[in-house]
Amino acid sequence: MSHVRDSTKSQDLFRKAKLRIPGGVNSPVRAFRNVDGDPFFVDSAKGAYITDADGNHYLDYVGTWGPAILGHAPDSVLQAIQKTALKGTSFGIPSELEITMAEKICDWVPSVEKVRMVNSGTEATMSAIRLARGYTRRTKIIKFEGCYHGHVDSLLVAAGSGALTHGEPDSAGIPPSFAAETITIPFNKPELLKECFAKYGDTIAGVILEPYPANAGLILPQEGFLALLRSLTTQYGSLLIFDEVMTGFRVARGGVQELVGITPDLTAMGKVIGGGLPVGAFGGKAEIMNFLAPNGPVYQAGTLSGNPVAMAAGLAQLNEMEQQNGYQALEKTGAQLEDGVKEILKEKGLGYQWNRVGSMFCLFFTAEKIINLDSVQTSDLNAFKNFFWRMLAEGVYVAPSPYETGFISLSHHSSDIDKTLSAIQKSITPSKK
Ligand code: KE4
């Protein structure tokens, strides 16, 4: 049943936050700007549920934007953090856990022969494109409209996620000369891709993409698009860079590249491999990775890269996924949600689209088939906003933006999915279409 939330404490915290933190948040999408409201402040989280400062409990489908694949505060991760932290929290000196993590990543993602740990997805993608430029001695990078690769200067062009949420796909503070080296084209447009390579091919250092774009809602590549990308990059000597910060270790052990059987030259990773702590990574062919300092001429570094506590948290999470046969379990839960949503949409009319891959999903508020950012932007933002607040009133927290993807965790049980479907049934109105 719906309940009117007390938000007194969250409102007071937000007021205080705005005095010392820009917009009151440490990352823009948390500000609830796209749903015209004020954010709640979390007090704690466990499993599939979060509790806010006023004691309201929510079934959580944001999952801290992807890392919480087991659910929040999993016991195995907490124990690993505690045990490791007692031996020291940071050394700036090589430690064995960094080897264990590197071996695990290379084992799960066969295209990765060597990997470098960093502290965020942004660092991972920023470093990967620098490496691509250093290795190929070229300067241009192709990206796709709506794909978000973190707040890297040269990639905040027609970006998704928070940049899109604020309706300013480009950002102030980026010199035109930086953006000039970035070619942006619509996703799922093979003819445009071929034209771009025909025109710029031998100046292109690399193509970076989310193989399943999930920062403009969840978009799926059309048949043959990723294979075309692989053949064109090979033909022109450009590197194919999969940004699997979100999809890596999430849609399968080996990410999208395992599902589609396409081998990129470099992969950016993050989120799940940190177990909730700040971790990113990038890796790929040893021949390319060996261009990185101290072996090669491409500089990249980080005080906390490979932090032992973060390595322990990430390893505990990956091991738990393996022990629980997590990907099979997530597919089962995801299918239960999908079956229920499709039943609801049958009666609610044609004004909705639904995409899901494993434990990642997105409900779009448009009758348009979703193929790229242009189609996503036909969504009815007001209908999404009403949906968001109705779902929250039903005790279900979905991303406060139509340009994000939902995440199911191993802690979401069948009864939670039933509760979610009941909330969706009440929260979406029959579309006019
Ligand atoms: P971070 O620098 O935020 O760790 O990762 C950047 C990044 C890179 N690549 C992909 C595919 C990503 O999804 C992200 C970050 N994702 C957003 C959520 N859509 C982070 C949420 C936020 O910005 O607060």
Would you kindly provide a written description of the structure presented here, covering whatever features stand out?
The chain is α/β, with parallel strands linked by helices and 433 residues long. It folds into two domains: 8-73 and 325-427, Aspartate Aminotransferase, domain 1 (Alpha-Beta Complex), CATH 3.90.1150.10; 75-322, Type I PLP-dependent aspartate aminotransferase-like (Major domain) (Aspartate Aminotransferase, domain 2, 3-Layer(aba) Sandwich). It has 15 helices and 14 strands. Strands 4-10-9-8-7-5-6 form a seven-stranded mixed beta sheet, with helices on both faces. A four-stranded mixed beta sheet has the order 1-2-3-13. Bound molecules: ligand KE4. Ligand KE4 binds at residues 27, 29, 65, 120-122, 125, 148-150, 161-162, 210, 215, 243, 245-246, 270, 280, 404.
